[in-house]
């Protein structure tokens, strides 16, 4: 167990200690789950009330967060409390450690493959002809890397991943278990009632520092490449269509599906189960709410939601009003009745007048 | 082929035979698919009409179901006809049988792993350091169990499953092919435009008697555990986020996605493609309709549907009225026109009167 | 690099060259991505404007497409330009080539399996007892084929695929990596609070010429078969429930989920993330828009969209009007106010008159 003093931790993240500087930290947890000896964080003021009841010994807070009204314990004030907390978790626990095992005699490595230094290739991995693997990359059991594909340096490929032929994976890329990169895109020319397969002769480029969750599926390009941009992170069960290009630093939550030939800008965020039709353009920094169905280009910086997707305030208003439809109908009927009544009265009064 | 008499079967399920007690049963099928010699069941009166046309020799029905108006054949009356039918299917066909093969010399089993009695470990399975496998568990080809994970007794792990390090699987758990348990949750602290990975140092606890379909993905906890409660069953392609806790005896249909830190109670039912946002609470016994998008806490025992989800009667009414929106618009326009006409008449009449 | 003259290509597809018959073609690309030496196609007049700016040397167009107004280069006129383009891509690039490797000594092949001629079985494949594999089929690394299953001739099974016991795969079937065929369907009889597993004793039939994407999951039948009809193509992460029967020549885009016992006709098309409830019937040639939720039978030839799904024109109208709900409410309030005002005036006027 690593023990760190609160002052060490504050120094590590460039923060300042408020309160008891003698506190020692042995673990990290959320405010509600923390116990004695744990450090926690308050990044979103929505959770401020949890500060009153947390059993955490230390809490990382924003620079301007006042300690006046909370129970006596240590705080670490800093600029970006969530980032600081992350740095502390890394310090206390580190990332997953990978045993150095070298190349397992139970792996199958083609004689024409080029394997870098300090590479781990676990049991039952299959490295095909002309594959290149960069230094310090680890490939876990039962992965297959197809002919001519290239995996960069410092990558982690978890078990049961399949990378087809002719794919290029950058440096420091992590791919979680069961994910498939480079299967044929969904392309057929239908003629006389038969769907004829269009050869999918392109590939996939996954740029540096990408992380991909479990059981995703990333199509190869039909002609040219499907691209996942630098620093982009995607969660589990995400489907990416052929020739789609995702820009750098995007975040794609679980079960997102993007059809083919979509152009996604940088720093886009997509919630769970978002669906995007083919051949459209998602501008830089667009935010797409969970389960949205995107059927048209999305301008830069816009937040959208709903299926079909609308700008978020419009979507929220419309969806809220959905609840009121029974009320609307009732009102419409009342109005109709009142109006008819009035018209009838009018007519009677006219008739009376004309009598 | 197993042959059972209708009286044997009735005894087996504590039911009573009505009709021809000499009938023999050799198979089981649904009412519409059954042929001569088959037993079938009627659990939902919606399918009562199929009783008239079925070729089944015997039908299991509820205790109070009257046989008067159906063609002469044997019925078995009992309390819970679907459960009784299931017991009969088990008697006639049994569950899948697993050949006892012991530990394959083509598997890779760490010297520090503890393997129970009568365990089957198939070809190309990788059992990492410090793994524990309970008695009578079967692990099919190309599975990987990561360091320090524990699988209980009488489990069945189908091919190509990955269980990461530090996960705990209870007794009598079934995991279907391609499923991944314990990949890193989707946690990043974004700082200066870079998404920094938060170490995912928690684990996964899968309690006893859980069954998980194919190609699911269950995140490990960031800190602490992701939990799948005792007796819960989930279908294929389900995604469960980090630190989510699913209570006992839930049913999750295919392609459900639950984000992180959700608390699901016991006996909840989720239809296909349901999406649930993070950090909310689903009460015991809640029923969530297919494709619903759940964005708020759900009280105990409630049925909801739609995206965003509403109580089911409200959702149905609103969605039904969606169809009538063109009608609403038409009516609004008519009312507007009539009213304007009336107001105009009024003014003219006022003008006339004041002339 | 294959070089073909435009006249050769035109002959190959039964088309006619318009323009420079000396042009040589070395590659294929879309209109926007093509460079010099590339052939491209115009199948959808939506993309006609790209003809003005493309750098393609040759473009395949429809029979009646006039070349008058486009830059001088060669066109190939033919009946079905997309199909012709596909034929040309096959001619230029061919389909993926599979190295003949025979049966790897690192594969595990049961002594009771029947393996045809010219079959490739790669490393770490597990072929169980009584499996039959047809001539010229290739099975890539880490696949498992369960006891008694049958794979036809000329199939391609990519890495990490699991086929359970008792499944039948036809000829010329392609299954992409990570897909699972034949896991148990989601069937439980709940009794006294416990979900009792119903034995799933049926199987899966995949007919000839089917292609299945990556990480799909196709349930076996509970009793009887789940069927994927001849020539049907499905993309990635598709879930098919037990006993569902999909007709021939359907197209299922990524992340479609179909529950159990659904009957899908022939030539149906389903967009991404479509969900279909159990026990319904989808007529021949039905077209279901992306993310639709289908809860009722769909008649032959109908196009539907939305969740719950409606005929497409109705769905579009309703969803468009969703945007106008705030406008509706405003209008309702105005009408209400005007009407009340009018009624009040009436009453006052009546009162005045009666004074």
Total helical segments of chain A = 4
Most strands sheet of chain A? 11 strands, mixed
Number of domains of chain A: 3
Question: How far apart are the termini of chain A?
Answer: 102 Å
**What is the largest interface, and how many residues per chain?**
A-C, 66 and 67 residues
Class from helix and strand fractions of chain A: alpha/beta
Relevant CATH superfamily of the largest domain in chain A = Hexapeptide repeat proteins
Shape of chain A: flat
Helical content of chain A, roughly? Answer: 10-25%
Name the beta content range of chain A: 25-35%
- At CATH level 3, the topology of the largest domain in chain A is UDP N-Acetylglucosamine Acyltransferase, domain 1
Rounded mean pLDDT of chain A is: 93
Any idea what the CATH architecture of the largest domain in chain A is?
A: 3 Solenoid
Strand order of the largest sheet of chain A: 10-13-16-19-24-27-30-33-36-38-39
How many beta-strand elements of chain A?
39
């Amino acid at each position: 167990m690593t023990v760190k003093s609160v002052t060490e931790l504050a120094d590590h993240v460039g923060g300042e200690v408020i309160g008891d500087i003698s506190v020692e930290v042995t673990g990290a947890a959320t405010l509600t789950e923390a116990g004695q000896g744990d450090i926690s964080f308050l990044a979103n003021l929505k959770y401020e009330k949890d500060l009153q009841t947390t059993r955490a010994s230390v809490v990382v807070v924003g620079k301007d967060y006042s300690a006046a009204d909370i129970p006596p314990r240590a705080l670490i004030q800093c600029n970006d409390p969530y980032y600081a907390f992350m740095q502390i978790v890394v310090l206390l626990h580190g990332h997953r450690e990978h045993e150095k095992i070298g190349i397992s005699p139970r792996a199958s490595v083609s004689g024409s493959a080029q394997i870098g230094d300090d590479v781990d290739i676990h049991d039952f991995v299959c490295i095909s002809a002309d594959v290149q693997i960069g230094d310090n990359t680890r490939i876990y059991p039962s992965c297959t890397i197809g002919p001519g594909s290239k995996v960069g340096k410092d990558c982690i490929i978890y078990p049961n991943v399949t990378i087809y032929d002719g794919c290029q994976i950058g440096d420091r890329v992590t791919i979680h278990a069961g994910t498939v990169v480079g299967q044929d895109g969904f392309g057929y020319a239908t003629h006389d009632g038969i769907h004829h397969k269009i050869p999918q002769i392109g590939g996939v480029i996954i740029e540096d520092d990408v992380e991909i969750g479990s059981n995703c599926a990333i199509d190869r390009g039909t002609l040219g490449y499907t691209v996942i941009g630098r620093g982009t992170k995607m969660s589990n069960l995400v489907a990416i269509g052929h020739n789609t290009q995702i820009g750098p630093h995007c975040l794609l939550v679980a079960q997102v599906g993007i059809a083919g030939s979509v152009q996604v800008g940088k720093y886009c965020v997509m919630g769970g189960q978002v669906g995007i039709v083919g051949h459209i353009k998602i501008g830089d920094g667009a935010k797409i709410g969970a389960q949205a169905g995107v059927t048209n280009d999305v301008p830069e910086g816009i937040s959208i939601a709903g299926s079909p997707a609308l700008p978020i305030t419009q979507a929220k208003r419309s969806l809220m009003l959905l609840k009121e439809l029974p009320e609307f109908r009732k009102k419409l009927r009342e109005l109709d009745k009142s109006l008819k009544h009035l018209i009838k009265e009018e007519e009677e009064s006219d008739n009376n007048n004309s009598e």
